[in-house]
Amino acid sequence: MTNNQLIQLINAIENADSSERLLKAVEALADARLEAGIPTLITVLGYNNPGAAVAAVDGLVQLGEAAILPLLNLLDEYNYGARAWAIRALAGIGDPRGLETLLKAAETDFALSVRRAAAKGLGNLQWIKMAEEEIQPAQKRVFNTLVLTCQDPEWVVRYAAVVGLQNLATAVAKTQSDLFLQIISHFEEILNGEVDVAVSTRIQLGLAQLAQISLTPF
Amino acid sequence: MQSGIEQNIEAEYGKSESLTIEEAIANLQGEDRGLRYYAAWWLGKFRVNIPEAITALIAALDDEEDKTPDGGYPLRRNAAVALGKLGDISAVPGLIRCLDCADFYVREKAAESLGMLGISLKANPALRVSIPKLMELLEGGLAQAQPIPGCPHLAQPYGAVMEGLGSLGAKEAIPLIEPFLDHPTELVQYSAARAMYQLTQNPKYGDRLITALSGDKLQLRRAALADLGAIGYVPAADAIAQTLAENSLKIISLKGLLEYQVKNSSSDSPLLSEAAIHIMTLMDDLL
Predict the structure, then answer these.
(1) Which residue of B has its CA nearest to A120?
(2) Are A204 and B272 a contacting pair at CB < 8 A?
(3) Do B271 and A204 touch (CB under 8 A)?
(4) Chain B: nearest CA to A63, how far in angstroms?
(5) Are B95 and B113 a contacting pair, CB within 8 Å?
(6) CB A13 within 8 A of CB A26
(7) By CB distance 3.0 to 4.6 Å, which of A50, A106, A176, A217 could disulfide with A118?
């Protein structure tokens, strides 16, 4: 792939005159998997075009680690739509360098779409990429944040927190059985107070799936 | 489209405007039109389901003071929306009266709210008194319901009326609703399909809404998502997850399916049916 081709791909995005053309152009740039295309893919997150944003997030997630620092640096503080997509990309990549951003977003962001993406992403972090001595304290912080997020006023954020906690439990089943059991008892505790049918059904699914893990010997 | 009203109001008044329940009820009966208008919306938004609020909102359905130059009744519209959310049967006579209001949007909001009351007060036979009046608005069928040149809306709020009848379980309205499947406007067709599904449980009407998810226009896909969520049409799950629209709307639509599935799975089958687990897996991916 030459520099010229990259410029053509970027031009196609900038000159797209319909959402269908924009989607095709973003998909083409995403498929090219060029690190130099990362800033453009991030810009697309702010276009308020869900189809194009999905394609850009997919592209950024495929590029993985290389996209982390640009995403953290270019995170748009003022456009919550763009921020939600950027958090979703960070969550999809699962690089622990996104940890602080995801913790803060899950706890304090005013946009529920951002809180929900962050809550899910916290459960998907690739712990293996973290220095060994940092892993357990970080997992404990994720647990504490997701316990808080389980009390969010928005049902979908609570739902995402349950998904995040279940994934965290799965990740720590072999290394931290105490945290694993803590998550199960937290699910049992919040199940009683949950008023939303979708969230309580999701908690029950989490309990059922975690029960299968706990049956296999550590 | 109640979400439209909410967006307008939030843009107009900002999120900073916070009220106590007492203030909202006082404002609703006060002198300031702007505050009255906002208070009516606020009481519905925060589900202030207390007798004082209901009484004041019902009174606001007959407001004559807040009137736009073209004959609209902004306060009545907001009061009608709020009463739909509060789920109190005593609002029914006032809402039925609103179906005769000269303002199209008051009729539309009243029909929507009667439908919402139908959902929240399912078994209440007192709701059925609204059915004949709603059916009246469909009279004249497609011939009366053609688009009016230069007018932003049809002669009646057909979509809201059919959705209301569907939610109220008004099987006697089926012959009136069915012709609207061929209405020139897609949104009206969807409302007809949604109501027909609710009244007949025939999958062909649900499938019609699935087809709508692959349409060209985002606005129409969004409408089909809302309709499928409202009727809880479980076979639509994968099509919902795949359509090009905001994840938030897809999640809400799937939530409708999940709730329907959970509430309607027979008591001897496990709560976590295969269909419910499948819907949740799709929701997880969209978070």
Answers:
(1) B287
(2) yes
(3) yes
(4) 19
(5) yes
(6) yes
(7) A106
